[in-house]
Hints:
Strand 4, helix 4 and strand 5 (100-103) form a beta-alpha-beta unit. The protein is 44% helix and 21% strand. The radius of gyration is 19 Å and the shape is elongated. The protein contains eight helices and twelve strands. The protein has two domains: 6-127, Rossmann fold (3-Layer(aba) Sandwich), CATH 3.40.50; 133-228, Arc Repressor Mutant, subunit A (Orthogonal Bundle), CATH 1.10.10.10. Helix 6 (159-170) crosses helix 8 (193-208). By secondary structure, it is an alpha/beta fold. The strands form three sheets. It has a five-stranded parallel beta sheet, sandwiched between helices. The protein has a four-stranded antiparallel beta sheet with strand order 6-7-8-9, with helices on one face. Calcium ion binds at residues 12-13, 55, 57-58.
Amino acid sequence: MANKYRILIIEDEINIVNFIKVKLEANGYQTISANGMRDGIMMLTSHCPDLVILDLGLPDADGMEVIQIIRKHSLLPIIVLSARSGEMDKVQALDQGANDYMTKPFGTEELLARIRSVFRNQILMNSVNKSEQYISGKLSIDFAARQVFMGEEEIHLTRTEFSILALLAKNSGKLLSYDEIIRQVWFLSDDGSIKKLQVNMANIRKKLGETPGANLYIFNELGVGYRME
Ligand code: CA
C-alpha cells in the first residue's frame, strides 16, 4: 500500500483536522497535516502529497497566498475548505487555481466525493494524450493503479520512487532536467534535492534490475537530467 494517495490538510482548527483525518484514513488515504502556511509549505516539499485540503483563515497567512504559491510551481490538486461562504471568496479561490471549494460546516461524505472527483479528473487529464499504461520491454507501469511490473513480477516502489518513474514515463522521449523533476516531485528545491533525487534514482534502478553502466530503461544525461525511452 506504499503508493496510496497522500492528502495534506492545512488547517489550524485541530478538531477539524482530526475529524477529517479519521474519515480519510478510514477510506484508505494517508494523511498529514500542518497548522499554517509555513508548516504547510514545508510539508509540501518534504512529503510530496497528492492533494491539499486548505483552510483560508490560517494564523500566519491567508490561504489564498498558499494557492498562489502552489500554482506557481505545480498543478497539485487543491480543495479549499473555508468558513467564508461569500460568492467572491469562492470566485477568487477558484480563479487562483483551486480545484474545488467547500464551505464549513461540511459533510464528510461530500468531501470524500469531491476528493474522488478531483482524482478522477486528474486521471482523465493525464490520459487525454497518454494511455493509462506505459510499456517498454519488460517494464510496464499502470498509472491509475500506481503499479509497476517487470514481466509478471510486481516491483514495489516507495511513493517518491513511483512519482519519479511515472513522471519520466509520462514524458517518455523527453529529457527532463534535474530541476524539473525535483520541482514536480518535491515541489520546491533545496540544497539537498539533487542528492535526494540521485538516491531515489539509484533505488529505482536497483529495483528495476538495472546495473551501473547499463541503462536499460532510464537514461542519465550527465549533469542535465533523465530521460526514458
Ligand atoms: Ca482557520
